[in-house]
Amino acid sequence: MNIRPGFKHAAVIIGLIGIPTVSFYFLITEWAGLVYLFVSAACVFYSYTKTPRVLLDLFMLAIAGIISKSLIQSFRFSIFSAETPVVIWASIGLYLLCFAFAVWLYCIFIKKIWNSILIPVAGQLLIITIACITVTVLYMNLFISLSNNLYSLAMFNLVIEIIYFILMFILSVILLRNNKKENLLKQKEAEQEQLFQYMQALEQINKDMQSFRHDYQNILLTMQGYITQNDMEGLKTYFNDHIVKVEERVLQNNYVLNQLENIKLVELKGLLSTKVLLGGEANIHFNIEVPDKILAVDMNILDLTRMLGILVDNAVEAAIDSEDRQLNLALLQKTDGSMLIVVENRIGMESLNIEQLFTAGYSTKGKDRGTGLATVRKIVNQYSNITMNTSSENGIFVHEIEINAVVPKRKKFLFSTESKAFSR
Amino acid sequence: MKVIICENEVQQRKFLQSVIFNYAMFSEPSIEVVLSASQPEEVLAYLQDHRADCYFLDIELGSSISGMDLASIIREQDPLANIIFITMHADKLKLTFKYKLAALDFIVKDVEPEKLTQQVKEALQASFAKYQQLGNSYRSKFFQIKIGERIKNINLDDIYYLETSAQVHKIGLHEKNGCYEFYGKLKELENLDERFYRCHKSYIVNLQHVKYIDKKNRKLTMANDEVCYVSTRMIKELQSKIAKLNSIVQNTG
Question: What ipTM, to 2 d.p.?
Answer without folding.
Answer: 0.72
